[in-house]
Write a structure and sequence with these properties.
alpha+beta, globular, 71 residues
Length: 71
């Protein structure tokens, strides 16, 4: 999910009240918490980056799929 502003992201935390935020390991949990202003009551987990796999590229492919015209 991509947010256009930090305010949008903070509103999601407030509205959804997640227990967990997951990020790729290019960031440490502390960096993610500070950068995204994640409240202390939300657990931050980082997972290893998988070589040759990109969530961003996968989302781009999905967005570029053409749907068949329905008759």
């Amino acid at each position: 999910v991509i947010f256009q502003s930090k305010e949008q992201l903070l509103n999601v935390y407030k509205d959804l009240q997640p227990n967990l935020v997951v990020k790729g390991s290019e960031w440490t949990a502390t960096e993610v918490r500070e950068r995204d202003e994640i409240p202390e009551n939300i657990l931050v987990k980082v997972f290893p980056i998988v070589p040759n796999y990109s969530t961003t590229n996968t989302l781009r492919k999905i967005n570029n799929l053409k749907t068949p015209n329905k008759k």
